[in-house]
Amino acid sequence: MTPLRVMLDYIYPWPNAAGFYVARDQGWYRELGLDVELTTHDHGRGDTLAHLQRAEVTFGVFPSNRLLVRRELGEPLIGVAAINHTGLETIQVIRERGITQLSELEGRTIAYGPTPRGRAMVAYLVKQAGGDPSKVITVDSGHNELTPQYLLSAGVDAMFGGYWCWDALTDDGSAEQLLTWPVSDLGAPRYHSYLLGTQTWTAERNPELVRGFLAATARGFRLAASDQEATVALLHRALPYLPEWKLARSLQLVSTSWFHEGNWGQQRQELVEGYADWLHEHGVLADPGVWRTATTDEFLPATDSAGPATTSEFLPE
Asked: φ and ψ at 61, to 5 degrees?
């Protein structure tokens, strides 16, 4: 068996990674001669893309905007499949502060990671709502997990960066005290929240490995979406401290983002190119055309319509 390390996007495991766990549990990676280890990144040594660049893992899951920025810097990384077909992020506000629309964030505080992309997104959404972004007070959320509990205890009015499908997993009832707006409902550009990728040299030198891994992974995501009861049981064995009903709700929500028109994995040009253009317009990318070499669908299994019929209808939207 060939050892293969795959780095996921967040903690071990959450339902957005369910397809990988299902594929491994079903033995579909092993049928390819692969002994797959699923892991998460060490924040002290960088994100998933940093680990990929150092060849410490063969495949990794990462935000699409980060890939575009790193490709512009010349890093040999490439997206080979889409995990999500919508943005998972939200802006949340504390109900008792009386904020009913984003324009009312003027003079208020909002916590998030103030990266160039984060600043651009918050400013854009506030402006879309008719507000003045220069009057919104940014608070660096640091390494805090962006949950309802954090927002309620941080002494700020709002938060950007939590996920509508993640809160279902972590909520202790605090979310009832918040208004939650998916960024897709606020006029954000359309984008793939997460992509699956590898090094360019892996794709060039070992295309059959990439094709085989993607085919098995696609099967895993299909089964995870179609048999959610069994998938929740599998995840619960890894996370026994989380109630199954929370895992079930989070899986139900996030699985709606895995397929487009029944197909898994396609990195849609309208999302990748459109997002690159938006990042360029807002000073995050110098070259919007970098998307052309940053992603490829050539290793995906043949498209079909076998995915669940409702998965392209993103529930929060």
From this structure: -110, 135
